[in-house]
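Can't paste images in this forum, so I'm doing it all in text. The chain is below; anyone willing to post the predicted structure tokens underneath?
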Amino acid sequence: MVILGVVASAIKEEIAALNVEDAAPGMTALALSLARAVDASPKNPAAKAVAARELRAVMRELRALAPVETKGDAVDDVAEQREKRLEAARKRAAGQ
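Text version of the structure:
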């Protein structure tokens, strides 16, 4: 079992939430490697800054590759509420 630092742990969680591991396995591995480098560089601020800058760039690209969520926006909420109202009206009209 590999113990991850704070940055690596957060990046791993974000990558899982983005659901991009299958689409860009190399970039996800690079992001985790860079995150580990940020965690492992407490005594070398220059190395930490370089790794952090590259990590931001890789994560920006991974976020752009993430599939767009289609459920949960305001339009979906309005459509769901409308459907509930229509169903209730149908039941009232049918005498239920």
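The chain has a mean pLDDT of 89. The two ends are 58 Å apart (CA to CA).
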